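WARN no homologs supplied; continuing
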Amino acid sequence: MNTFFQVVPLGFVPAGATPVDDFKAKFIGVKYVVDPGTKQQKIYQFPSDDSLGVVLNADGFDIVNPITLGTLKPLSVGDHVVDSYLIFSAMHCDGLGDVVADNCLGPGEVLFPTVEFTVLPGH
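OK structure emitted
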């Protein structure tokens, strides 16, 4: 996201002085759904806290990554799918543009790209 609010959608109300401050104020947590829709489905949810990964001014942008909020249990050998959801209390915008569909997330659960992978047996 931008390091400052260059532009925002009409009616957007930031909850902080910068987009990263707004993100941290509105970010409730992250939810992972492992193998969704199968009998092996597991759901993990981690609330936001001070361990939220934040990198300020990385090549002109601020980066937030919830991977630091928790750990998932090891998966069995085979193919898996993980859906990741960011959960917001209100709409968050990145400060880069004024198009809600392109520059904002939330409120509620926002699906991030689904990840498909294979766990291989150890050696």
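The mean pLDDT is 95.
OK
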